[in-house]
Amino acid sequence: MLHPLIANPSATRHILKKFKLRAVKGLGQNFLIDAEVVRRIVEAAEICAGDEVLEIGAGIGTLTQGLLEAGAKVTAIEVDKKLPAVLKETLAGYENFKLVEGDVLKINLAELMPRRFKVAANLPYYITTQILLTLLEKNLPATKIVTMVQREVAERMTASPGSKIYGALSVAVQFRSEARIAFDVPPESFLPSPEVTSSVVVCDVRKPPFEVDEEFFTKVVRTAFAQRRKTLANSLAATFERGKVLSALENSGIDGARRAETLSLAEFAKLSEVLK
Ligand code: SAM
User: Fold this and answer.
1) Ligand 1: which of 39, 56, 87 to mutate, judged by most atoms within 8 Å of the beta carbon?
2) Which terminus of the chain faces fewer neighbouring Cβ atoms within 10 Å, N or C?
3) Which alpha helices (H) appear in the chain, and where do they start and end?
4) pTM reported for the whole predicted model
5) Whose CA is nearest to atom 1 of ligand 1?
6) Ligand 1 in contact with 136 (CB < 6 A)?
């Protein structure tokens, strides 16, 4: 069956009009209208026939269609109650498509995706960080996470220690994956156009490079960055006992006068294990 392409301005306008829809700003609805961007996301995700793919935020099925055409088996989550009826029509005839209605942050992803899978998504920008942290910290069998995010978030995900934008998100992403910005996407590639440039980030998930108690590690990292302007000793002492913080810093060979943004992954790993 030949399917009309969704990824262009006229098809998208036609679908929105037909179903009397308006993009809902509060749900981060910026629909892709650029077939080349869809193609490049599918390419960045290295989709092969039979790959299990989780898409977060199917919208009207634009990226979903690209993934399905490449042979993926797509499970897509969508929270907007008006969209299932649209997807039923735009993706009619594709056999390997499963829609899960609901909020991605409330769905048990481990249960939904029990086998190895890839993520490909044009994320709703208002909850990008929560979604990324859920995907990375829940130890799901995800092997590759390819997401469209705001350029500024992409830069934070891939920032190096010592840079002003290196923070808890950078550590969470880089602790569990090799992350890189694949390409930028201009506002004109979406309907409606967002105000900022977007980027597609590829995270190749791997085992963390250091063995740590992950829950405690996450707590230490978040506490350390909670007050960026404070020294490490002071920000950690807001949650942990000051005496223990000072001796853990000394035993890890880390100067407590440093700020969290200067610590490497190895230093955070060591500090969290000693503090524990
Ligand atoms: N994939 C489509 C595309 O590329 O054109 C739509 C992308 S749009 C940026 C984000 C989508 O995420 C919207 O369809 C929106 O309704 C959906 N969404 C927003 N919040 C969500 C949530 N909490 N759970 C699941 N989907 C959500």
Assistant:
1) 56
2) N
3) 9-18, 35-44, 62-69, 83-90, 109-112, 128-137, 151-157, 168-176, 214-226, 232-237, 242-252, 265-275
4) 0.96
5) 58
6) no
Sequence-separated (6 or more) residues with CB below 8 Å from residue 271: 220, 248, 249, 252, 254, 263
Distance 122 CA to ligand 1 centre (A): 7
Q: What is the pLDDT of residues 170-203, one digit of tens each?
A: 999 999 999 999 999 999 999 999 999 999 999 9
Distance from the Cα of residue 57 to its chain's centroid:
12
Q: What pLDDT sits at residue 160?
A: 97
List CB contacts of 235: < 8 A, sequence separation 6 or more. 223, 224, 225, 226, 227, 228, 260
In this predicted structure, the answer to whether residue 78 has a pLDDT above a threshold of 80 is yes
Whether 124 contacts 29, CB under 8 Å? yes
What six digits make up the tokens of 249? 């810093």
pLDDT tens digit string along 143-164? Answer: 999 999 999 999 999 999 999 9
C-alpha–C-alpha distance, residues 276 and 273, integer Å: 5
